[in-house]
Design brief:
The chain is an alpha/beta fold and 513 residues long. It is built from 15 helices and eleven strands. It folds into three domains: 131 residues, Nitrogenase molybdenum iron protein domain (Rossmann fold, 3-Layer(aba) Sandwich), CATH 3.40.50; 137 residues, no CATH class; 192 residues, no CATH class. α4 runs antiparallel to α5.
Length: 513
């Protein structure tokens, strides 16, 4: 694989001695950083990112040409009395060529092939869609002004097919890049700068989110190399004022500044100037956590970027869209699964005495109780033996792995989450949503503090972010954090992604018992 060879060939960087720390701020260090002409540093990220951008360019060209060609062929097929060599056919042939070239160019102008967004996920797709819609909007306006009658059937084929092919190509490319990053390749060597506690947290987050491709090679903290080392498992290479010199010496591709007293606007500007000759990327981490990008709006205030955080909304049109999605998808799923669910109900009745369905009180939206419906997976009267099964330990997310109350078929139903499917009835009734925090019993809700109680701001769901991120194997604090992140950053596209990830999680059976 060419990209892998380029990466490994450029990944070996000789470390040089870092001068002793001299300052505790991000101001320009007294240690002079040797200027490196822009573009001359052969860092690993620079090599593989350029190769990746070139590869994506050819993927875009192939997708655009295929979409334009399909639109042309379907518009001028045998049923229409216009041939390729006839005047109108030849004119559309020219239009197709120009459109394909302009489309590829528009994607570049919108930054859809910028190395900083490739394999990033949402931002990359947003730029692809934005570039495509801007192009076709501009084309429509030009055709109107020039009084050129562009065939609607031609556009109706070319636009959606092109978007599907472009997004599909980017998705496949992102998967290959993330797979390579999981093996340790395609990394951006990164130096972290800031206070010790914030640097430790940022280093942990970067290690966890390995798909982003940040490989922390060192940190700069107050006190520099004289402070206890390492920090968060990463060696201390200098003081925070030496970040630019450390980045050059280690061949770093990025410097990430964590929140700290030293991260003043003037200091960050100076650091950006110091990094400019080497072409090192500067990342500034705001003092915000678990806030999705769509809720952030950057507003300049006298030259200083101010990040506005829009409040989450739980009513109005957004709620109506979510409810409509739940009803349509829930009803379709229930109709498709009706016969298999009846077979499961019969199996439950035949293998253990008692009803097929189990009803239990749970706490839903705004703390209102409701009765959830599930296939019965335990013996009748199992709730009376709850304390014995838990051994006196009932936390927020209690669920013992080896519960003696579970029947033989119940273990199978739980393993593949089949016992949850009757909750489609709760979804159609309006008690639950397809996606949302796990509905909990009053015993668990009674233990909520003010933060965890925010889980009740939305309807509980059949599946949720914590279920597709580890399910019952996650620690309590991580499960709560994921639920709160979902509550405050809900989007319809996010619900679709969670539903798709749920299918994969169910098949793999991680954390299901």
């Amino acid at each position: 694989m060419t990209l892998e060879k380029d990466l490994h060939a450029a990944a070996v960087v000789e470390a040089v001695a870092i001068p002793a720390p001299v300052a505790g701020t991000l101001e320009r260090s007294s240690v002079p950083a040797t200027p490196v002409p822009a573009g001359s540093r052969a860092g690993a990220a620079r090599t593989w990112q350029e190769a990746l951008a070139a590869s994506v360019l050819w993927t875009d060209v192939a997708a655009v040409c295929a979409a334009v060609a399909l639109g042309y062929v379907l518009r001028f097929d045998r049923a229409i009395d216009v041939g390729i060599l006839q005047p109108r056919g030849a004119l559309y042939l020219l239009v197709s060529v120009v459109l394909a070239e302009a489309w590829v160019l528009a994607l570049g102008v919108c930054g859809a092939r910028s190395p900083r967004v490739l394999a990033s996920g949402r931002e990359e797709i947003v730029r692809v869609v934005r570039g495509t819609l801007v192009l076709f909007g501009t084309t429509a306006a030009a055709c109107y002004l020039l009084k050129f009658d562009l065939a609607r059937s031609y556009v109706a084929v070319t636009l959606p097919v092109g978007l599907v092919l472009l997004i599909g190509g980017r998705w496949l490319r992102t998967r290959s890049v993330r797979a390579e990053r999981a093996r340790g390749g395609f990394q951006r060597r990164t130096v972290l700068v800031g206070a010790r506690d914030t640097v430790v947290d940022l280093a942990a987050r970067m290690r966890k989110a390995h798909e982003t491709g940040f490989s922390v090679v060192g940190v700069c903290v107050p006190g520099g190399a004289g402070s206890p080392s390492p920090v968060g498992g990463v060696p201390v290479l200098g003081d925070v004022g030496q970040a630019a010199a450390v980045a050059v010496a280690t061949g770093a591709d990025a410097v990430a500044v964590a929140p700290s007293d030293a991260a003043t606007p003037r200091a960050i500007k100076q650091l950006a100037w110091d990094l400019e000759p080497s072409g090192t990327e500067l990342l500034v981490m705001p003092a915000l956590a678990d806030v999705a990008a769509p809720r952030l709006v950057v507003t300049p205030v006298d030259g200083v970027p101010c990040v506005a955080v829009t409040p989450p909304r739980f009513t109005g049109m957004q709620n109506a869209v979510k409810r409509g999605f739940d009803v349509v998808v829930g009803l379709c799923a229930l109709l498709v699964l009706a016969v298999p669910l009846l077979a499961v109900a019969a199996a439950v009745r035949l293998t253990s005495p008692g009803p097929a369905l189990f009803r239990q009180e749970r706490i839903g939206l705004r703390g209102e109780p409701f009765h959830v419906v599930k296939f019965r997976t335990m013996r009748v009267g199992a709730e009376a033996d709850l304390e014995e099964a838990l051994g006196g330990d009932a936390g927020l997310f209690y669920k013992p792995k080896d519960d003696p109350r579970v029947t033989r078929i119940g273990r199978l139903l739980r393993r593949y989450s089949i016992d949850e499917f009757p909750q489609l009835l709760n979804v159609l009734r309006g008690d639950m949503s397809l996606v949302g925090p796990r509905p909990q019993v009053p015993l668990e809700v009674a233990q909520y503090d003010a933060a965890v109680r925010r889980r009740l701001l939305v309807k509980p769901g059949m599946t949720g972010l914590w279920q597709v991120s580890g399910r019952n194997d996650l620690p309590v604090d991580q499960s709560v954090r994921l639920d709160l992140y979902y509550v405050e950053n809900w989007t319809l596209l996010g619900d679709v992604v969670i539903l798709l990830r749920t299918a994969r999680a169910v098949v793999r059976r991680h954390g299901a018992y």
